Amino acid sequence: MNNYETVFILTPVLSEDQAKEAVKKYEEEIKALGGNVTHSESWGLKKLAYPIQKKTTGFYFMLEFEGEGKEIADLEVAFKRDERVMRFLTTKMDKHHKAWADKRRARKSAKAEA
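RESULT FIELD:
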């Protein structure tokens, strides 16, 4: 099983409930394709570096998941078909990327507890 990370931007015209529903849809899509979601994170509404579809902000989300390589193409087709998704990027995580992500998550949770 390989580790993957997908970051996607949803259109800002959605309510927070609609954005959460979209994320849940993609988590279920990954599970249906045979993957396993290991971590999901919302980065919130952020300003874009340049306008996309005449919008200057968007809801950022990150999904980390495990799976074989074959489901990536199907997941990206689902992203392309969804009008709510403005941009997405899926990367394969090597052992260093995975270790850094785990360390970042541990640091973030320690900061939240303090």
